[in-house]
Design brief:
The chain has about 140 residues and is of the alpha+beta class. The chain contains 3 helices and 8 strands; from the N terminus they run βααβββββββα. The chain has a single domain, classed as START domain (Alpha-D-Glucose-1,6-Bisphosphate, Chain A, domain 4, 2-Layer Sandwich), CATH 3.30.530. A 5-stranded antiparallel beta sheet has the order 1-8-7-6-5, covered by helices on one side. Strands 2-3-4 form a 3-stranded antiparallel beta sheet. β6 and β7 form a beta hairpin. The relative contact order is 0.26.
């Protein structure tokens, strides 16, 4: 198992952050990491995401939404081929801050037989993608 986790504080309410994260139709306007998401985001449904890792070709994957708890947590599970080969459980967790802002914890837990070789190849770029998405979200909401 490997985990990547990033955190950013945003001067916007959890509701504002949530609405921007779940407004998939506008991702291409601001999100440098996940450029496109198709689907409604309801728990149990499948999404079709186009991800751009820095320095690599776009990749399309079709994760299943595990959690959609408005203004608190959004989580999906993506798989490579079969279960336990390379699974990624991606999450966004929001916490209200005393100043009216929001702390976003954005991460992913990777499991499976191919975790080590795949993460050696894409781990750094994936973390850079998370950080770029976080900063772009902050910039969009604080403008």
């Amino acid at each position: 198992m490997k985990q990547l986790e990033t955190t950013i504080d945003i001067q916007a309410t959890p509701n504002e952050v949530w609405n921007t994260l779940l407004d998939f139709g506008k991702y291409s306007e601001w999100n440098p990491f996940i450029r496109k998401v198709e689907g409604n985001g309801a728990t149990g449904t499948q999404l079709r995401n186009t991800m751009h890792l820095p320095g690599q070709k776009p990749q399309v994957f079709t994760p299943k939404v595990l959690v959609n708890n408005p203004t608190v947590e959004f989580r999906w599970l993506g798989r490579l081929l079969l279960p336990r080969v390379f699974d990624g459980e991606h999450y966004f967790k929001l916490t209200a801050l005393p100043n009216g802002g929001t702390r976003l914890v954005h991460g992913e837990v990777f499991r499976g037989m191919l975790v080590n070789p795949i993460m050696r190849k894409i781990g750094k770029a994936t973390e850079e993608g998370f950080e770029a998405m976080n900063q772009a979200l902050k910039d969009r909401l604080e403008k």
